[in-house]
Amino acid sequence: MSEEHAPELETALAGVAAALADPSRIRMLCALMDGRAWTATELSIAADISASTASAHLAKLVAGKLIICIPQGRHRYYQLAGLNVAEIIEKMMNLTGIPVTAAIRKSSAPPHLRQARTCYDHLAGETAVAVYDAMQEKGWITADGTMLTTAGESALTALGLPAAHTVKRVFCCGCLDWSERRFHLGGYLGAALFTHCEQQGWLTRTPGYREVTITGKGKKQFRQWLGIQIP
User: Fold this and answer.
1) 138-141: long-range contacts (C-beta < 8 A, 24 or more apart)?
2) pLDDT, tens digit, for every residue of 67-89?
3) Contact, 160 vs 21, CB < 8 A?
4) CB 142 within 8 A of CB 150
5) What DSSP line would sit under 125-184, residue for residue?
6) Do 27 and 170 form a contact (C-beta atoms < 8 A)?
7) Residue-range definition of the domain harbouring residue 112
8) What local confidence, expressed as pLDDT, does residue 102 receive?
9) Number of other residues whose CB lies within 10 A of the CB of residue 106
10) PROSITE patterns this protein is in (predicted)?
């Protein structure tokens, strides 16, 4: 590394170290190690600090590029900036030699809504999050969930779902799930997949409600198609 870049790197590293150098911020980061997105209020409770103090700490963690802020409707959620951040925190935990268990805030959503429900015109809940994760693991959608890959196009075509790109709305995107605090598939592709699953009898809606039931046929198809086990 050339000397001319050394000061810039040193300053950046010092900024990251400063962002980590506070017990309250560490407690927040440990809470976020569960992989979900949390609100500022939830993180203030996890860190046992006031909401105003939490906001100041969160701003420093965002500035240090350790976490990201995800606006969702009227709410703002915070999540680790990436797997590399989680790995750094995990290594720091190992260095202490002390077992660390992150406080996990349980969802208040009713169990039947947690498993499957509608989110506008696409599927949400545990099943939808599992579908999104599986599609990423198989390389069918990009890491940020904004594009369908060539392998994904082939898989959806084989399923009988046309992977059309000439649509006015966002083609595909990660939509933050309010009960799971992780992403499920949204956009045109999420809606098209939901419609396809309904037409194939993989799921049924409860008229007048958001609840969705995954049928026996659907459980079998999701298992064969994506390797997802649905209770």
Assistant:
1) 138/226, 141/172, 141/185
2) 999 998 788 999 999 878 887 88
3) no
4) no
5) SHHHHHHHHHHHHTTSB-TTSS-B-HHHHHHHHHHT-------SS-S-EEEE-TTTSSEE
6) no
7) 98-224
8) 47
9) 5
10) HTH_ARSR_2
Average pLDDT of every residue of the chain:
87
- Entry pTM: 0.72
Q: What is the CATH number of the domain that holds 37?
A: 1.10.10.10
The single residue listed with the structure tokens 């797997």 is 83
- pLDDT tens digit sequence for 115-125: 999 998 999 99
CA 143 – CA 135 distance, rounded (Å): 10
49 near 42, Cβ under 8 Å? no
Is there a contact between 230 and 203 (Cβ–Cβ < 8 Å)?
no
Number of domains within the chain: 2
- Contact predicate 78/67, CB 8 Å: yes
Q: What is the dihedral of CA 146, 175, 125, 225, to 10 degrees?
A: -10
Residues 33 and 136 in one domain: no
Q: Are residues 109 and 195 in the same domain?
A: yes
